[in-house]
Design a protein that fits this description.
The chain has 315 residues and is an alpha/beta fold. The chain has a single domain, classed as UDP-N-acetylmuramoyl-L-alanine:D-glutamate ligase (3-Layer(aba) Sandwich). The chain is built from ten helices and 14 strands. Strand 10, helix 5 and strand 11 form a beta-alpha-beta unit. Helix 1 crosses helix 8 and helix 8 runs antiparallel to helix 9. The longest helix has 16 residues.
């Protein structure tokens, strides 16, 4: 196969600044320490980190035909990501977010939906898009055209072609579940945050949330638990919970996407489920230690070495 992973979905330009304690009144100016532009989104943040971690990665999404798109495409090209499946759409802006990062790492956001609302994958592109053993769909909830029936067709095709399907979404609520439910039988690894899992299922306990999605067809649920670590539940009965690493948090932007990238990379390297969780947690910890959705990630070898030096919150 041409690629290790095909990453489909939401591609965003993030404009981040830190630390922001307040927005200046009137037309006044405050000074901050750092501003960055990064490729982000529930697909963009994943593909950037899988590439940094050494995977041959295909980016599949849409941007506008503007200066923001120029940055997004060139940034991915520099990392060796294949961007030939990225669509540049006239008449719409590239999806973008302004994030004001608070001193505690929280990230209130202002978002322009843009090109990702118009993104779809045509059957003529299937041979390229599915030329990978792992297919990740990220961004359900902010993919107006692809959400719903089109996503089901896409994931069903991925499974027909023998791919392992990983899945994440964004800004999920109870109203999002009608988009997700038909997709679950085609998802091998369902990876929302626990907050999203609770909001969509109406369940509270982590185990109950997992049972809800497993009963509806998902093969494995992996919930990120923030400072509590991560939880893994499979239809084969496996249940695992690993603690988070004890780090100084700078910015939580893209931590879930970094976790997804780490898990996908661990899958590619044949790690067992517990090692996959610890590796994914480590990639997320590196990202949380800097500004932006790819901060701290250099390479697979560097990540392994740094994780070995981390301590978990449990000791």
């Amino acid at each position: 196969m041409r690629y290790d992973v095909s990453v489909i979905g939401l591609y965003i330009l993030d404009i981040l600044g830190r630390p922001v304690t307040q927005i200046p009144e009137r037309g006044n100016v405050d000074f901050i320490d750092e501003i960055r532009l990064t490729v982000a989104g529930t697909a963009g943040g994943v593909v950037v980190n899988t590439a940094k971690l050494g995977l041959k990665s295909l980016a599949v999404g849409a941007v506008g035909n503007d200066e923001k798109a120029d940055f997004v495409i060139s940034a991915m090209d520099r990392l060796g990501i294949d961007t030939s499946a990225m669509q540049r759409l006239d008449g719409v802006t590239t999806s973008a977010t302004i994030l004001n990062i608070r001193p505690n790492g929280e990230r209130p956001a202002l978002h322009v939906r843009g090109a990702s609302d118009h993104f779809d994958v045509a059957p003529k592109d299937y041979d390229q898009v599915f030329d990978a053993p792992i297919v990740h769909l990220g961004g359900t909830g902010l993919l107006k055209t692809l959400d719903g029936e089109r996503s089901q067709v896409l994931l069903e095709e991925a499974k027909k072609r023998g791919a392992t399907v990983t899945f994440d979404l964004i800004a999920a609520s109870a109203e999002t579940f009608h988009l997700v439910e038909p997709l679950l039988p085609f998802i091998d690894y369902f990876m929302p945050s626990i907050e999203e899992a609770r909001d969509m299922s109406g369940m509270t306990a982590v185990e109950d949330c997992a049972s809800f999605y497993l009963d509806k067809g998902a093969k494995t649920c992996i919930f990120t638990l923030g400072g509590e670590g991560a939880f893994y539940a499979s239809v084969d009965g496996t249940r695992l919970q690993v603690p988070a690493y004890d780090i100084d948090v700078v910015d939580t932007t893209g931590c879930g996407d970094a976790f997804d990238a780490g898990f996908i990379t661990a899958l590619k390297h044949g790690m067992d489920p517990e090692r996959r969780l610890f590796f994914a947690q480590g990639v997320a910890a590196l990202v949380a230690s800097g500004l932006g959705s790819d901060a701290g990630v250099v390479s697979f070898e560097d990540t392994v070495e740094k994780i070995e030096g981390f301590r978990t919150k449990a000791g």
